[in-house]
Amino acid sequence: MTDILAGYFQHTPVAGILLGLALVVFGVVGVRLSVVDFRSHLLPNRIVLPAYPLAGVLLGSAALWASDAGRALTMVGGAAVLWLAYFLLRVVYPAGMGFGDVKLAGWLGLYLGFVGWGQLLWATFAAFGLGALWGLVLILSRRGTLKSAIPFGPFMIAGAALVLAVPSVG
């Protein structure tokens, strides 16, 4: 995302500012949701749902302002695909994932779709890898078992943040 941000600032500062604001929203909402999820194992609608239009408007406006309508389309597609993938995981194994994670996936999909399909895939792998690593740490430290519930939202956010921080290839 950093390379896209730089390109947008070069092309038109307004698009760069809009994209920068979208990243600030990602950071603020992501940190808030991570803290809440670690404490309560919940991702509240009052935080997740308003983040959708805020991110959608900022990212979409940045793309359109920079005459990059393709990004606006993949942004919407990314949100739909990631929401659906997590929804299917929820249907297959309801005890393993809450519906808050499904809603969060759609919001993260806006950002990840904006940067590209490969990044969406890598962020998903990173989320599951980070979550598994955390579970392993809990088991090895004897603070958890294979049956322990862990909040997955922070790992979804961290995986997306890692991918967004890496410049795109190609």
Briefly, what is this?
By secondary structure, the protein is mainly α.
Q: What proportion of the residues is helical, as a percent range?
A: over 70%
Structural class: mainly alpha
- Assembly classification: single chain
Radius of gyration: 16 Å
Number of helices: 7
Beta strands, count: 0
Approximate strand percentage = under 5%
Which sheet architecture does the biggest sheet show? none
Poorly predicted sequence stretches spanning 5 or more consecutive residues:
none
What features would you describe in this structure?
It is an enzyme of class 3 (hydrolase). The protein is mainly alpha-helical. It has one domain (2-165). The protein has helices spanning 2-11, 13-40, 45-65, 69-92, 99-115, 117-140, 153-165. The longest helix has 28 residues, at 13-40. The mean pLDDT is 93.
List the helices and strands and how they pair.
Elements: H1 2-11, H2 13-40, H3 45-65, H4 69-92, H5 99-115, H6 117-140, H7 153-165
Helix pairs in contact: 1-2, 2-3, 2-7, 3-4, 3-5, 4-5, 5-6, 5-7, 6-7
Domain Prepilin type IV endopeptidase peptidase: 28-136
Protein name: Prepilin peptidase
Transmembrane segments: 12-35, 47-66, 72-89, 120-140, 152-169
Notable traits:
elongated; single chain; mainly alpha; 170 residues
